[in-house]
């Protein structure tokens, strides 16, 4: 695929996410640049929807760098908690962000709950420039359930608590290539790449 640009800034400071995004974009002929490499400060994420936060992060990185930028806003939504932690997933247990404290808080909040269905949600936004009136947008959802203790070492965030029904494993027990094939992020990226193909020359 010949893209209309050859550099792409990734508007994320999350190392786990960056690793997955790099893996998902590896087939493309693109230079992937994490925003930290260009000294982009972390953007505010004040909105109550994932899409608004993703757009804000992508625009912010593109404005700071003058390059096309891709942002991922994602989170865990638990049915019995009316979709919480949702857009607050990264800061569920407060500042500074901590996966370990977020997992501990989720376990505590869900103690004794029998309804444990949840999903990961991801929206990916790509802007070709900061004022792009036609951002590329794609979503993905991954259904599963929340365990009552941590299992597995891989991945990041809520991975050790999220059981994938099909494999019977937590996400933290899945290797990167398998997670990438089935995850909310993998689905969103596959859809985004499909849209990118239409721009390709
Ligand atoms: O595959 C995943 N496996 C486990 N947990 C996940 C996943 N995907 C999102 N999550 C959870 C944890 C993360 O902290 C939060 C995202 O919050 P989100 O604001 O999108 O990311 P972030 O603040 O960590 O980095 P940044 O905004 O710089 O991309 O949702
Ligand atoms: Mg964030």
UniProtKB/TrEMBL annotation:
Active site: 73 (proton acceptor)
Record GO terms (molecular function): dITP diphosphatase activity; ITP diphosphatase activity; metal ion binding; nucleotide binding; ribonucleoside triphosphate phosphatase activity; XTP diphosphatase activity
Binding site for substrate: 12-17, 74, 156-159, 179, 184-185
InterPro entries referenced in this protein's UniProt entry, alphabetically: dITP/XTP_pyrophosphatase, ITPase-like_fam, RdgB/HAM1
Record's subunit section: Homodimer.
Role: Pyrophosphatase that catalyzes the hydrolysis of nucleoside triphosphates to their monophosphate derivatives, with a high preference for the non-canonical purine nucleotides XTP (xanthosine triphosphate), dITP (deoxyinosine triphosphate) and ITP. Seems to function as a house-cleaning enzyme that removes non-canonical purine nucleotides from the nucleotide pool, thus preventing their incorporation into DNA/RNA and avoiding chromosomal lesions.
The protein, known as: dITP/XTP pyrophosphatase
Species this chain originates from: Methylovorus glucosotrophus (strain SIP3-4)
């Amino acid at each position: 695929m010949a893209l209309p640009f050859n550099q792409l800034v990734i508007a994320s400071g999350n190392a786990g996410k960056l690793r997955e995004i790099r893996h998902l974009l590896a087939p493309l002929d693109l230079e992937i640049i994490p925003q930290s490499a260009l000294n982009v400060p972390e953007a505010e994420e004040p909105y109550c929807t994932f899409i608004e936060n993703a757009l804000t992060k992508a625009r912010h990185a593109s404005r700071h760098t003058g390059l096309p930028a891709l942002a991922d806003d994602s989170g865990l939504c638990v049915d019995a908690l009316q979709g919480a932690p949702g857009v607050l997933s990264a800061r569920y247990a407060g500042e500074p962000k901590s996966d370990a404290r977020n997992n501990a808080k989720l376990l505590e909040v869900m103690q004794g709950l029998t309804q444990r269905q949840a999903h990961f949600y991801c929206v990916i936004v790509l802007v070709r420039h900061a004022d792009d009136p036609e951002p590329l947008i794609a979503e993905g959802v991954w259904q599963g359930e929340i365990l009552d203790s941590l299992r597995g070492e891989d991945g990041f965030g809520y991975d050790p608590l999220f059981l994938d029904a099909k494999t019977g494993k937590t996400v933290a027990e899945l290797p990167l290539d398998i997670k990438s094939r089935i995850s909310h992020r993998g689905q969103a990226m596959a859809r985004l790449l499909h849209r990118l193909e239409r721009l390709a020359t």
